[in-house]
Design brief:
By secondary structure, the chain is mainly alpha-helical. It contains 4 helices and 2 strands; from the N terminus they run E-E-H-H-H-H. The chain has a two-stranded antiparallel sheet.
Length: 117
């Protein structure tokens, strides 16, 4: 229990406060100027208000991409053209905020959609 989750009740007893970020983790990451500029440009181009939400989505997309590469390697499937995947994901994200890229069966449960999107 972190110090931020501890409070006092009206009678002075120490109590555990609800964690507003339950299920989420806070990390510190150092980015180069180029990485930050690219992430910020992507955030603005995709109409995402919060920087942390954009970075989380970029991490999710990168992990899905890496999982797909391993999936194709293991199954022997020919890897789909990356531009085609990017175009389909962009089109779908603009329409309903979710990726239309077909993913390996275990991917959806490993990296579910962000609840705010």
């Amino acid at each position: 229990m972190s110090a931020g989750n501890i409070g006092k009740s009206a009678d002075g007893n120490v109590v555990r406060l609800p964690d507003p970020s339950a299920g989420r983790h806070r990390v510190v990451v150092s980015l180069t100027e180029e990485q930050m500029a690219a992430a910020e440009g992507w955030r603005l181009a995709n109409g995402i208000a919060e920087q942390s939400e954009a970075l989380g989505e970029l991490i999710r997309l990168g992990l899905l991409s890496e999982i797909a590469k391993v999936y194709h390697l293991v199954t022997g499937d020919k890897e789909t053209d990356h531009q085609e995947i990017d175009d389909r994901a962009d089109d779908d994200r603009k329409s309903d905020g979710r990726s239309s890229v077909e993913e390996p069966p275990t991917t959806a449960s490993a990296f579910p959609e962000h609840p705010d999107r």
